[in-house]
Fold:
Amino acid sequence: MKLRRRTFLRAGAAGGLAVLTGCDQLPPDLRRLFTLTKNEPALFSSSSQLSIDPIVHAMNRASFGPRPGDYQRIRKLASDPQAAATIYIEQQLAPEKIDDHDAEYAARQFETLGEPLGELFEYQPEFLENELVRATLLRAVLSERQLFEVMIQFWSDHFNIDPSKGECKWLKVADDRDVIRKHAMGKFPELLRASALSPAMLWYLDGRVNRRAKLADKPNENYARELLELHTLGVHGGYTQRDVMEVARCLTGWTVRSREKPAFSGLGKVEFNPDLHDFGEKRFLGETIAAGPADASKDARETSGRHELERVLEIVTSHPETARHISTKLCRHFIADDPPSGAIGLVAETFSSSNGDIRATLRALFSTEEFRRCRGTKFKRPFNFLVSALRTTAAETNAGMPLVDYLKRMGHAPFHYPTPDGYPEKAAPWMGTLLWRWNFGLAVAQNRIKGTRLDVAQLRTRAGGDETLMAHLLGRKPTPEEYQAYKDSGAGLALLLASPAFQRC
Structure:
């Protein structure tokens, strides 16, 4: 391993620090200098099957794609591929047990993401947005907790917030950290409650202006409608316009401290104002929510009004249509664009019986025969395609704006979707991105993206030759026609990244 003079001098200056703190506390670049043998690139193997085997399938769906060496590491977990894939998924279902030091260390450069809620307002919105997008991309590439990052993407779409609206420019950073990332693998009722009381969501779907100070006031129905249509029951969930109106009444009085009104202390803080709440009787999905106390103290009225939010969330999270809606979306994401009804039913049963336990629900999904059978059929969305290309080639990247610009051109940069339904899951809307995918494949293979670099020669050497390298990228042994095209192209790696097989997972 050759060391540049500047790197060597930096390492020498850090030598005392290594003794005092241990190599694991140093930045990755310096840690490599103290653990040369451990970090030497190793040879790796790939599947030799003619079709995608269970291990490759598990990595394709429960992660953003395999890196060099991942296949052989997982293959050693059990005597047969299916058992090894099952163990791998079970490991991914417990992200808190997976050491993710390198990814978290890399993400620390985006310091604003850890700032307290009120202090986020001190930054320029564009700077915050760039940090949030880049950190999301970098974590997807580097994280060992791959299923966790996949679920971050899933829930970010499910509870989509467009940061360009109002104070969401500042508040979305906290929503990503305190709502999505905190609850992504927890319990759905807790995730839903955190979203309902997220200052960013209260801004985005107008919950902060949903009030009824007097009888003539009409509650704002925006959040209530999306709560039922998108977040819980689904568009065909059996609710009526009357139910939407009643939910809106239940949720009146919630506000967010804003830059719009003095005093400006406690910016972003969510509060409940009983003077703006409708305390009349409501009837929602067949359940009666009693009228609040008319002459009670302010504290009692506040407790009563807050309870109405909890009651609404309790009703919708326990409703069988919510189990079916969430399970359908999960099966569409992990199994097929048109998910099989049998799998949806089994997953919904687990969602209901576990009170919305996300891990248990995912475990049931990955155990279905439909999941195991539907291999290589999902068209990668642009973010998944780009991240899988970086992972499979062992590219080093700073997730800089030149890389983000490719996602913007393909229409799939994180946190840029303008409507509450989130980025589409099905393949059809993404078919128009193929040209930009091919351009990206060629640019990354030729090291023409600033801040991103890969060593093609080293990658080929580590694979032990072209055929193994192709098997690594394709997830299976290449056909004779694919192998010949690879050899004839003069740009084999770029061709593989642009190939129909790599576009699917």
